[in-house]
């Protein structure tokens, strides 16, 4: 794997994890949103990651040369979590039904915070990998002195 390819793979990971953190922040911000533009409570969102695909020719060439085929990661979509909404008894709430229950978003703050920590660690790992690659390149340049 070339140095620039290593940097590109790390950069794709940084971009993906940054988007993941943005979505987690959006989920936390809307944890109490009982009414969206379509009239339902906010529904938790989750990013879907996928390994960046190589062309068949690249994969074959990499296999022939004994190289790895990974090209990084990309976000292929943002899906809504289909778990049911929570029901909370609050008869004074403007969105309460006739029995006094309010449908609340399916966002669990504890789960979101765990996901945020995981995303932060993955982001930091990608930064470390990129810095290591940069350090290797600088050491290689020092050999020529």
TrEMBL record:
Residues 99-142 form the Flagellar basal-body/hook protein C-terminal domain. GO terms for biological process: bacterial-type flagellum-dependent swarming motility. It is found in: Bacterial flagellum basal body. Residues 7-35 form the Flagellar basal body rod protein N-terminal domain. One of its GO terms (cellular component) is bacterial-type flagellum basal body, rod. Signal peptide: none annotated. Pfam families: Flg_bb_rod (PF00460), Flg_bbr_C (PF06429). Keywords: Bacterial flagellum, Cell projection, Cilium, Flagellum. InterPro entries: Flag_bb_rod_N, Flg_bb/hook_C_dom, FlgC. The basal body constitutes a major portion of the flagellar organelle and consists of four rings (L,P,S, and M) mounted on a central rod. The rod consists of about 26 subunits of FlgG in the distal portion, and FlgB, FlgC and FlgF are thought to build up the proximal portion of the rod with about 6 subunits each. Belongs to the flagella basal body rod proteins family. This is Flagellar basal-body rod protein FlgC. It comes from Marinisporobacter balticus.
